[in-house]
């Protein structure tokens, strides 16, 4: 948009008095500089965040300088516009120049949001937010799995989801497999950034609760999504023991029912998952349970499969 100001200025240049020619040239130069800075800060918003994560204070100073330069250019353009409008010729040229300049200034100010976002997203500030969260007694439900909806589209588990839900999600027609351009462009970066947030929260001692938003977000099936969520938490740096706590001990503590469930102990609810292997060494064993004890009733792997088969009838 700022580049368009330079174009609009060129349109009125030949009808502008000689004494105002330097003002036009200044506006054109400022327009090009501001356009470059604005495009860089806006189109590279998430890469800038990732850069800030690694560069820390040096990048903070750079980002501050960039946003200051953008705001200065916006103000300078508005001043130039006010002067040029007096000699812009027809009212149509004046209106075009005024519209473009106003839009450019608004865009510059809006672009500064992304610089502020990058500022808040560097490790020192994430750690500070995590520390404040812990001190305030806040518990965080992670729900990282919501960004992996398209990966579940071809899963065999989807056939057990109700026809109504599959239709609403677009599973059968394949729409859940399609990712938007923006999602493909930013997915890997946002996932790495979210991974950083989870790690800082865990390191600060903030209780984490595994969540999936199943049926709340299209394409997220029950069961498998929780297993994926636990694996994502492990990828973020949580040890397997602490990963398991996010789906057992921590939810019970959040609900104030630690005496009812969340642990394997006498007097606790008999809701257990039996797996062949040690989840403290390999979380993937949770994907193949040997059986489930629910409300004191034992359901073997074959019983569970029969219940799933019943959903297909």
Can you put this structure into words, describing what you see?
The chain is built from 13 helices and five strands. Helices cover 60% and strands 6% of the residues. The relative contact order is 0.08. The protein folds into three domains: 2-121; 128-258, no CATH class; 270-313, no CATH class. The strands form two sheets. It has a three-stranded antiparallel beta sheet. A hairpin with a 2-residue loop joins strand 4 (289-294) and strand 5. It is mainly alpha-helical and 313 residues long.
Give the class from helix and strand content and strand pairing.
mainly alpha
Helical residues, percent: 55-70%
Shape: elongated
Strand order of the largest sheet: 3-4-5
Radius of gyration from the alpha-carbon trace, in angstroms: 28 Å
Spans of at least 5 consecutive residues whose pLDDT stays below 50 are: none
Ends distance: 58 Å
The total count of strands amounts to 5
SSE arrangement, N to C: HHHHHHEHHHEHHHEEEH
Which percent range describes the beta-strand content?
A: 5-15%
**Number of separate structural domains:** 3
Mean pLDDT: 76
Taking the sheet with the most strands, its summary is: 3 strands, antiparallel
Count of discrete alpha- or pi-helical segments spanning 4 or more residues: 13
């Amino acid at each position: 948009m700022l580049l368009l100001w330079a174009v609009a200025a060129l349109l009125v240049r030949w009808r502008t008095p000689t004494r105002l020619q330097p003002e036009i040239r200044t506006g054109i130069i400022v327009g090009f500089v501001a356009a470059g800075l604005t495009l860089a800060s806006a189109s590279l918003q998430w890469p800038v965040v990732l850069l800030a994560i690694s560069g820390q204070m040096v990048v903070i100073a750079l980002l501050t300088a960039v946003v200051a330069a953008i705001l200065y250019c916006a103000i300078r353009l508005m001043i130039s516009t006010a002067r040029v409008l007096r000699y812009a010729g027809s009212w149509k040229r004046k209106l075009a120049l005024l519209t473009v300049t106003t839009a450019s200034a608004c865009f510059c100010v809006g672009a500064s949001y992304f610089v502020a976002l990058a500022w808040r997203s560097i490790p020192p500030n994430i750690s500070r937010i995590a520390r404040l969260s812990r001190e305030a007694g806040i518990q965080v439900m992670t729900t990282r799995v919501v960004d992996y909806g398209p990966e579940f589209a071809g899963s065999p588990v989807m056939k057990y989801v109700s026809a109504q839900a599959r239709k609403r999600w677009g599973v059968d027609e394949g729409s859940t497999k399609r990712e938007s351009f923006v999602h493909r462009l930013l997915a890997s970066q946002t996932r790495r950034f979210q991974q950083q947030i989870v790690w800082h929260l865990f390191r600060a001692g903030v209780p984490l609760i595994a969540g999936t938003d199943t049926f709340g977000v299209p394409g997220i099936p029950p069961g498998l999504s929780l297993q994926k969520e636990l694996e994502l938490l492990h990828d973020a740096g949580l040890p397997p023991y602490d990963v398991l706590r996010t789906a057992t001990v921590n939810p019970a503590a959040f609900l104030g029912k630690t005496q009812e469930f969340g642990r394997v102990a006498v007097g606790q609810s008999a809701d257990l998952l039996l797996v062949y292997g040690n989840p403290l060494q390999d979380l993937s064993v949770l994907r193949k349970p040997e059986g489930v004890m629910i409300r004191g009733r034992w359901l073997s792997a074959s019983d569970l499969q029969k219940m799933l088969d019943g959903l297909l009838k």
